[in-house]
Amino acid sequence: MQTNNVYEAFAEQDEAAYIDAFNTLIKDSYSAPLPQDLSATCKNQNQATVSTAKSITTSMLSSDLQIFCGTETICTIPAGFTVTMNSNLNVAALVLSGSLVWNDISQSSSDQWLCAGYIAVNGGQFDMNLTSKQGYIYIKNNGLKHPTVSTRAFGSYNAGKIHVSGRSLARTWSLLANRATYGMTSISLLHKPEDMGWRIGDRIVIAPTMSSSSGNAEDYTIGGFEANNTIKLLNKDGTSTGFISSYFKSTTLFTGQNMSALMQAEVINLARNIIITGDDFQHVNCVDDAAGGKPQDHIQADHCSCWKSINRNKCTLGLHTIAIGHGSVLSLQYTRIEKCGQRGILGKYCVHLHLISKCPDCKIIGNAIEYGHQRGTTIHGTHLATIENNVYNDIRGATIYVEDGNEMYNRIFYNVGICPWAKSGEKRGCTIPGTDNDQADTTLNQAGLWGLSFTNYAIGNRFANNYNGMLYQEQGFDRGRGHVNGLECPSFQQIGRLEGNTFHGCGRFGTYVLASVFPKKTDRSVDKNGLPTLSTCKEWTTNGEDNGLPATFMHNIDYDNVFVGQYSTGDLQYRFHTSINNNNLIYWKETKNFQDGCSSHIADSFYDSGNLALPGGHGTFILENMIFNNQVNFESSHHCQIGVTGVLCMPTYVFVNMKWTGVTSDEFSILKWGPNNGAMFTLGPDDEKNLNGNKLFPAGFCSIVNPYWSYLLALDNGASCFSLNDVASLLGQNTGKFMRKYDGGAILCKRPVRRLEIFSFNQNSGNSQTMQLELWQFGNLISSVTLKFFQIGDRKQGYSATVVPGLDHKYKLSMTGGGDVSSDWIIEFSDPIFGNRWKRDEIDLVVAGRNCPYPVHSQHDRRYIWSGDNYLTVKGRGACTSFPDMSPVNCRSQPQLSNVEHCPDKCPNSCTNGYCDCATGECLCNPGFSGSNCNIDTCAAAGCINGNCVAQYLGQSLPVTNKPCVCMDGWYGDRCDTTTPPLPVSDPAPSCFNGCYFFTDSDIAGEQFDVSQAADPKSCCAECNARAACNSWVFFSFRCFLKTGTQRIHKPGVMSGIKCSGGTGSSTIASVTTTPVMIAPVTTAPVTIAPVTTAPITTNCDGKCQGQYPYGCNPSFQYGYCNAGGGCSYSTMNDPNWCCFNGCNQQPSGTNPPALTNPPTDAPITVTVAPVSTSCDGKCPGEFPYGCNAGFPIGYCASSGGCSYSTMNDPYWCCFKGC
């Protein structure tokens, strides 16, 4: 018996646990195999014995340089001289002030390498360009340290330039076209692998698609290519057939016009012909540099430094690449960087652009960056760089990191970052302790994309299984950090173009904006190194108008995360946002009305299955053109009055043109009330009649308010607002269920509602009074309500009420007992957006001690009241004062929010199919377009008729050739041009290799499991069934694959458990599919296990396959074939490229059975159960259904134990159903 544990991800103080577990953490990490001579010459050769320096006096070949410098010399190439790489070069270190040239012509052999303790490009130029040959840059751990780039470095400084470019790929990643599931030996992609430039022998990784950072990636070697963009899988080492041992989702969903949710596992290619690698990681002890405080940055960057307040005693050193200072360049394209990062040493990352300022030539494109211990790519004090089409795997800490807060207009395009480890598994996710930013790297907030600067482009990126997908963080760094600490105002930064990104499977947030972000108009620019004049970081203009600079996040997709959203954020819109199956579809603590007076907070978006945690103010929060699908809940005033969050907890939620689809249950609450009896839900002015109703608003009602405001029931003689009991009776609803639906009670109104708020000063719970609000109609007092004092923090204090606008009734407001309302207090009624977009709200309001105009309306003075974190700094503003109304805004003539900065003077010729980069004056292509003039329309090739183009946010120009369109509901086909759904494709037959491991506890709560060593799938599953009646929980990590008819379950402590199906007619299906497979119950006959005989050892395939019998394959099957590439097959074939090593004299006559190569689709299946048949007794193992699934209309079995569910005329197969 064994047990399995749940592990905690690393916090900053967990260095000791990290060091102790290091061998476990890296045991499955991958580094590329090295040429034998490189490994023997350079790998782990330890310290250099001498460090003399030599400088050449003439240009020369590397073969001559090797003789001149030897292996123990720091070799210097002065300015004016060039080294041409014609052979391997091994030196102690290399300093380059001149040039090094390395290309396919200069390189004399198929593979060539350069070894050094560091390579420092000091004003010189390192040019490496290989398209057809293999090159290695090997950074040795020989103890040498350069004064600028430090140890184990490949870096440039003093305007030095590094250009490394390998064989380009048309694409470095794609998505699964069909789901990949247990036992499959091939996968199908959206793009054709050969057209992407992928090759047999390349290593690929499939991203996890489980929720909440609970999945593990799987890596394989490409064994071959087949039709329908199919890749045949070999195992990680390329020595035998690769079998999928988990479940990888491939589901698409049409969520709106030009909106598609591509919930498909990423597949990345990690093979490159240039490899930057080096010696293994080493732990080194730190130096106590400042016992009483924190040492300066240059000390932390120089060596492993520790001090009293940091939880670090060691650093973990791999190689690092870097460009330092103005004029320096680091350009790495289609290169592999591995074993990189130096945990605990400042500035030492896999790729680092350090304080370069403008660097349009810094191009990090198409690289494979893997096995890193302290971030992937760091952009630090650098602008205009390009980070594009890179793939990241097994990077600890942030994958892409934007460091100080002044970085601007960097192009982060179409990258894929995979955290391959479950956060609670033994690898602890991708967390790492002991860095300079625990927010970005540890269990606090490890992120795929972490940024302090918001003014960059992030388009088409995908991050899977990280703790956070994207984290823009102002909290803790409100004045910048590092070199610009005290010089920035991150809270007010202009937001760049964030579009078309996908964040999934995150243990915390997908999209995440942390703390206070309220973009404003400042004078930041690239020419000013991204630094504003701090006096321009202002909440208001000189006349008290809002100084906001509205922005929008567009076309982003969040799914299977815990949270999506932000804390306190204003002037930020989510548009065309797709949020599916997140615990919180949106999470928003505090906001404000938009500066433009018109915009919605969430617009044109699709929210499916989850909770909307809505903010507790300030003002009107608009959700426009929304589709809510399935069970969606609305939590009002979320997090209000927790700490200092919220604004009197009295927001107005306005729904404009809302739609509801899918299935909901009346057993659950659809909304949740917040504190202070606050929040109100109301339809937009154009939707108030609500003739048809929807899941939230019953027909005829347009507003929902907290039951505390029962005083409204008297309005219009009780004809406008109704108690929940009355509405339930009116609609014939079950009162109990109706009460539960509305969180225990509500008042529903047929008229709109608005907020009335009074902000007081200098009160507290000890000296405050209550207020009285009276409702008058037809000249009579018809009802009244007491307004209780409410306070959050110091300045957020006062009173609030829900009111119905209109002039057919009157409100009288006073202190309880009739006392005057202080002239200092600020009164707000409704919000200006109603007058700007529709018709202004009006109310007849009398305030004791004030001279209110008639009517009081929504366009009254708002100056200096609210603009984000700075609020209520003046007194006596707002309604019922002498201050002028707000400036009129005509929303009908105002364009909708765009995420493209407007600068027509920079691109005077306009940008067809593109947009202007306001920093460079360059036209950049819109997503879906490419080419020098943005003239290649990737979507045109798809020709989608009743659906959306898949390729729009996938980058590059290569078209999608497998399932290029996402169809509207009811349409099918590659171009969504048919109403006939495709035929279902069955799952693979059962397979079970190296025995199965299963839990012997009675339920999933247990921890003990046992093992069967049987290689035959039915024997394996039969023993499992015999032990626990098919309620066992199988460890896939021990390579037991028990068919797709198994149920993937997440068990505490088990990263990827699956429920044993027995492989004998199980009707369970993987629980993570979006469209369930409906299979009628199946009665299963007892299984008779056919004996498995072991084939004799043979030398038939020596020299034709790799190694000796069984040639890296499994000899336990009836038939066995191998090939020279390390492939294995277990069905008969007549292919001369395959050699038979097992069962060669038992092959049946007739044609070979077709291999199941098409992965399953997610179409629903409805089948009936056939009667028990004996037609295949003796021809297939056991009795009906012969180890197959009898739930399909057609069933065939084979003597080897195979199953097929489509008609065939092959004598090798016996029909047992549907014959």
List keywords for this structure.
EGF; Hepatocyte Growth Factor; 91 strands; mainly beta; disulfide bond; 30-stranded parallel beta sheet; eleven-stranded parallel beta sheet; 6% helix; 1219 residues; single chain
Short account of what is shown:
6% of the residues lie in helices and 33% in strands. It has 1219 residues and is mainly beta.
Could you outline the blueprint of secondary structure elements for this entry?
Elements: H1 15-20, H2 22-26, H3 36-42, E1 52-55, E2 60-61, H4 62-69, E3 73-77, E4 82-84, E5 89-90, E6 93-96, E7 99-103, E8 111-116, E9 119-122, E10 125-129, E11 134-139, E12 145-146, E13 150-151, E14 153-157, E15 161-165, E16 173-175, E17 186-188, H5 193-196, E18 203-206, E19 218-226, E20 230-234, E21 250-256, E22 259-264, E23 266-269, E24 274-278, E25 282-285, E26 287-290, H6 297-302, E27 305-307, E28 314-317, E29 320-324, E30 329-333, E31 336-340, E32 342-343, E33 351-358, E34 363-365, E35 368-373, E36 377-383, E37 386-388, E38 391-396, E39 400-402, E40 411-413, E41 416-418, H7 438-441, E42 447-451, E43 457-459, E44 462-464, E45 468-473, E46 498-499, E47 502-504, E48 509-517, E49 551-554, E50 557-559, E51 563-569, E52 572-575, E53 578-580, E54 584-590, E55 602-603, E56 606-613, E57 620-624, E58 627-635, E59 652-656, E60 659-661, E61 671-672, E62 680-683, E63 703-705, E64 721-723, H8 724-731, H9 735-741, E65 747-749, E66 754-759, E67 771-777, E68 780-787, E69 790-792, E70 796-803, E71 806-815, ...
Parallel strand pairs: 1-3, 2-4, 3-6, 4-7, 5-8, 6-9, 7-10, 8-11, 9-14, 10-15, 11-24, 14-29, 15-30, 24-31, 26-27, 29-33, 30-34, 31-35, 33-36, 34-37, 35-38, 36-39, 37-40, 38-41, 39-42, 40-43, 41-44, 42-45, 43-46, 44-47, 45-48, 47-50, 48-51, 49-52, 50-53, 51-54, 52-55, 53-56, 54-56, 55-57, ...
Antiparallel strand pairs: 12-13, 16-23, 17-20, 18-19, 18-23, 19-20, 21-22, 25-28, 28-32, 62-63, 63-65, 64-65, 66-70, 66-72, 67-68, 67-71, 69-70, 73-74, 75-76, 77-78, 79-80, 81-82, 83-85, 84-85, 86-87, 86-88, 89-90, 89-91
GO biological process, one term: proteolysis
Domain EGF-like: 965-976
Keywords: Disulfide bond, Repeat, Signal
